[in-house]
Amino acid sequence: MKSIPVSTTINGDPYEFLCAPDETLLDVLRNRLSLTGAKEGCGTGDCGACSVTLNGRLVCSCLVLGAEAQGAEISTIEGMADGDELHPLQRHFIDHAALQCGICTPGILVAAKSLLEKNPAPTDEEVRYWLAGNLCRCTGYDKIIAAVQAAAAEMRGA
Amino acid sequence: MSLDEYTRREFKQVGTRVRRPDGVDKVTGRAMYGADATAPGMLTGRILRSPHAHARIRSIATSAAEALPGVKAVITSADLSVPEDEFIRDVQDNCMARGKALYDGHAVAAVAATDAATARAALKLIKVDYEPLPHVTDVDVAIRPGAPVVQEGRALENVPAGMSANVTSHSEFGHGTPAEGFARADKIIERSFRTAATHQGYIEPHACLASYAADGKADLWCCTQGQFFVRTLCSAIMGMEASQLRVTASEIGGGFGGKTTVFIEPVALALSRKAGRPVKIVMTRDEVFRATGPTVSTSMDIKIGMTSDGRITAGEAHLRYSGGAFPCGTVDMGGQAAFAAYDLEHVRTFGWNVLTNRPKEAAYRAPGAPQAIYAVESVIDELCQHFGLDPIDVRLKNAAKKGTKSSYGPTFPDIGLVATLEAAKKHPHYSAPLKDGQGRGISCGFWFNFGGNSCVSLNVNTDGTIGVTEGNPDIGGSRASISLMAAEELGIPYDRVRTIVADTSSLGYNDVTDGSRVTFAVGLATIKAARAAIRLMCERAAKIWGIDAEAVEWKDGAAVPAGPNAGKFPPMSLAEIAAVSFETGGPIAGHHEVNVDGAGVSFGVHIVDVEVDKETGATKVLRYTVFQDAGKAVHPSYVEGQMQGGAVQGIGWALNEEYIYGADGRLQNPGFLDYRVPVASDLPMIDTVILEIPNPGHPYGVRGVGETGIVPPLAALSNAVSRSAGIRLCELPMSPPRVLKALTGAG
Amino acid sequence: MRYVAAKTAKEAAGLLAAEPGVTRVLAGGTDVLVQLKSGMVEPDLIVDIKTIPGLGEITAEDGGFRIGAAVANAVLGEHAGVVALWPGVVEGANLIGSTQVQGRCTMAGNLCNGSPAGDAVPGLVAANAVARIAGPEGTRDCPVAEIPAGPGKTTLKKGEIITSIYLPARPERASDAYLRFIPRTEMDIAVASAAVSLELNADGTVKAARVALGAVAPTVVVADAAARILVGTTLDGDTLASFAKACEAVCNPIDDKRGTIAFRTRTAGTLAKRAALIAHARAGGSK
After folding, report:
1. Concatenated DSSP letters of B357-409
2. CATH at B632
3. CA pair distance B11, C279, nearest whole angstrom
């Protein structure tokens, strides 16, 4: 298999890499670019642990080929905090104990950020349906919903 | 059980909701989990797995794979010696089949190659000559005479007539004479129940990185609930001395009991030894489902007698559990837990473990208890319905309390069941009106809790901060609760304490993170390590003041002169003592090593409201409240989190989760698409009520809280469905086709 | 394996036609990448059609809408015009997978995947949608209903790709609805599903009905006999009961890990009944 050269933008920074034609964006992020914040829980789009945004859309990076990143804008968990200033969602997840083991947390944070950009004042039900593709086995989701709502309220200036 | 540990006190920090110390790493993607590590020269390992449920392995041809460029090692069971110890041998044989493949997904060979694509290609070049054998995956079929025998030579010595050679153990618990009790009952209900095997469902697949060097020393990085136990198992399998294998626990992406043993770690070590390079293995989700974890599948007969005023006169349970292809003791815990919530004069449980062609059972949150208690709590509920009695009143009438001789032997000390039931009864949820078609169910739950071997080292840094070194992976906030207890005992702020999880070369042995033991047992060792450091600091202060060490007390984070010297010297703070420690005798540290007893049992009560769609059989969970005794909640948010997480795992088990085997003995649903764990939109908020009935066996009264929460949901949901839909299901999960069939008789 | 990002439909069709080995067309990739991961297929060639100009667009045409084959379903769901005209089609498309999957998956991909349980397909069939197909021999139009050929199979010929799907214009007082049954609230494959498209008379009675059932046969089932029961009625209880029975009568499902024959059959009838009521209300019917 001949490798494909790809130029892309991740968290605002230019990146260039070579990848195999059948290599997923998740594998590229984790194995070639040392961006291991996106996790592989299933590799089939069923758990959401590998969530990133691709040209502003929330996607599972396990369901995107690395080659498709050509010319794209990608955001990952590593780009969520502004330097040492945590994003309100990140802060509220810590304050509300919205993580136990933390493996699903990067994906849920990326997904929640994408929700709040689209809908700054979601209902609990809207948060739950938006996050239905992000499995969490530890928390029962309760504190995740509470943390997203607390962050949303802060971001609205409420 | 040591009951003299607890003393009443006012807490300053324990019980507050501090930020966990690993929080920032875990919300920024920086935390290192099992699959996140790399090593110079690292190879990728992959495992070939049996497509057969049961097959003799005639031969394995590996030469074509070995000849593939980029392949550095291929191993089969022939590369491992056969351990003498039966327990270790079973663990090893589960990691790599020897002679027979015992279930779909059983590992038969492994390769290490320069990249994943080469490793995948190499697996296809390995030729395994299988002789398929008759298989059995159903516990009720496997126990019958004439069933295919999963492993020869493992049967119980005297298998009773009417049972097969798949029966590997029998246990019996209880007291009294049930027949006498049943004779006094106004109503006896006998029901048979079945529960499907479920998986722990942690989101992080098993992953490890092994590096075995030419000098016989090895390092292993892996996601595990217990690095010390991994060392025990892997060093035994590899024929190594414990000191030569250092195991480092990564951050762990969920375990729930499923990461208390090894699956890929010995394979990676053996590949690394053969290849002479580090080897990383990461399981796929398919491998996780097919070859790790699940719970036992069960078949149970329950008989309970009750008087018309709600007194249970006798209870009897016959439990048939299958822990998969290897002998398994989980049924013993089911038998002990089944009636533990009740004060019974006549009670008896009988348990059998049965081999089937399924993966080897691994612990899952209160292993064995949810199933048996589901069955018992269902029958009690049906008796309540029969007599028209309030289900909480009946449970209060029969509840175990201090002084009750438990159904499994010990007499209970202070326990929280009555208080928990009373809290549930007076909670607004219990009296909230229901709409037509909705139903409310309740259930009690119980778990033993464990203590175990624990070892903590606490170092006083010269700037007045504290480093706590403990040996249990932080699976849900334990660094925070350990730091809180250290800060409380020392009388310094929480943020001056940093707790780290040590590798196996840096600390003495610690039991696995299981049995809800860490906050209890490691917490106890931490408090005592802090007390040891306090003694030293008092001595140093005494030395500086020129008085007897016995005349110094520790108060609010400082040494103060006491007795005849009281007020003679100003208090010396921890920071002040630490700053001059090099001049007063050297570094200051405390440590404590103990095999902790006195864990203190835990009870919970759950209330759930549901609505069953009678046209589709779908069950919607409308409202849920968990009541549980935590002894003392060190970090209430994480205690609530355990209660909520356990409840939701139980909801999944009750409604949708199950291992589905085809007629070919292969697992039909090895993925999150068809193994249906609850998603966010399935659920309401899970309300929690923490009760604090101090555990006499812990200095702060702490009880474990991790496991009990998964026990009550199974029956609570079934009891609620019964009241919503008017049908009593005796099988889990209550999936929509099963419910619709019960409602319509069709299908 | 080769990956080619095609610049034109003609190029894509030519590449696919010329490849002697296994090929896959990549739009959203939410099925193709799962097949790759599981080792189910090892394609020699993957042709990405998202890079073809126009395939990512929704355009108004003759009172209806032409949906490019690479339009992600999340984008479709944000298009007010399509949502107003064919709400049932959009709700089917929007039920596929998670938010993350919605950001990638397409109706054309759902159709070409050939699953009898595809959530986008019954709505399209009930809508009489038409697929535009580019192939080595040029372009042709084909009713969506004629594309599925059995589990994992379509009637598309080698080298053919769907470039767009056309949703026709609707008269006044017309609407549609789609319902599926899954054990959870999200993230499952439909165990049974039903799409109902209705046109009403001024008095609220049904003028025309088209019904398509999913996951109850090797391909989506058009339940014409059942649909005729609705015509002339206002969906009273007796009508709905016999409508549900008629839907059940045309089901030919399998027993599998997701559901039994009896469950799928009965549930398809229940869903069809409920979807008809929703479509009727949306079309301005009295209920």
Report:
1. SSPPP---SSTTHHHHHHHHHHHHHHHHHHHT--HHHHHHHHB--TT-B-TTS
2. 3.30.365.10
3. 62
Q: How far is CA C208 from CA B278, C76, C86, C127, C198, in A?
A: 69, 26, 15, 12, 6
Same domain, A71 and A108: no
Count of structural domains, chain A? 2
Amino acid at B45: G
Please indicate, yes or no, whether residues B515 and B562 belong to a single structural domain of this protein.
yes
Taking the C-alpha atoms of residue B594 and residue B698, their distance in angstroms, rounded to an integer, is 13
How is chain A split among helix, strand and coil, in percent rounded to 5?
A: 40, 20, 40
Q: Choose, out of A22, A24, A63, the residue to mutate when testing the contact with C (most C CBs < 10 Å).
A: A63
Model confidence pLDDT, tens digit, residues A71-97: 999 999 999 999 999 999 999 999 999
Enter the tokens of residue A18. 């070579």
pLDDT tens per residue across span C165-224 = 999 999 999 999 999 999 999 999 999 999 999 999 999 999 999 999 999 999 999 999
CB < 8 Å to C184, chain B: 656, 676, 678-679, 681-682
- CB distance B746–C266 less than 8 Å? yes
Q: Is A11 exposed, middle or buried (0-12, 13-18, 19+ CB in 10 A)?
A: middle
Please report whether residue B326 resides in a domain: no
What pLDDT sits at residue A97?
98
Q: Please give, rounded to a whole number of angstroms, the shortest distance from the CA of C140 to a CA of chain B.
A: 36
Closest CA to B182 of B344, B382, B332: B344
Same domain, B733 and B713: yes
Q: Is B283 inside any structural domain? A: no
**Chain B residues touching residue A21 (CB < 8 angstroms):** none
Pairing of strands B558-561, B572-573: antiparallel
> Using the beta-carbon criterion (under 8 Å), do A133 and C104 form an inter-chain contact?
no
Domain that holds residue B524: 451-594
End of a domain among B594, B611, B630?
A: B594
Cis before B733? omega within 30: yes
DSSP helix/strand/coil, B168? strand
Structural tokens at position B107: 């590992």
Q: Which residues contact B241 (CB under 8 A, 6 or more apart)?
A: B235
Question: Residue C257: its chain B contacts at CB < 8 A?
Answer: 660, 668-669, 674
Mutate to test the interface with B, among C94, C185, C261 (most CBs of B within 10 A): C185
Q: Facing residues of B439 across strands?
A: B610
d(CA B297, CA B325): 12
Which CATH number do you get for residue A49?
Answer: 3.10.20.30
Q: Which domains does chain C have, with CATH numbers?
A: 2-48+55-167 (3.30.465.10), 174-282 (3.30.390.50)
What's the pTM? Answer: 0.98
Residue C62 sits at the chain A interface (C-beta within 8 Å):
no
- In what helix (H) or strand (E) does residue C192 lie, and over which residues does it extend? strand C192-200
- How close A72 comes to chain B (CA, Å)? 22
The alpha-carbon gap from A145 to the nearest alpha carbon of chain B, in Å, equals: 9
Q: Are residues B562 and B683 in the same domain?
A: no
pLDDT in tens, C41-74: 999 999 999 999 999 999 999 999 999 999 999 9
Domain boundary among A53, A79, A105: A79
Burial of A83 from C-beta contacts in 10 A (0-12 / 13-18 / 19+) = exposed
Contact indicator for B605, B424 with CB cutoff of 8 Å? yes
Q: By three-state DSSP, how is residue B305 classified? A: strand
What is the nearest CA distance from B286 to chain A, expressed in angstroms?
Answer: 8
Range of the domain at A29: 4-79
Distance (Å, whole) CA B11 – CA B29: 34
> Distance (Å, rounded) from C-alpha A102 to C-alpha B26?
6
User: Is the alpha carbon torsion for B12, B13, B16, B19 positive or negative?
Assistant: positive
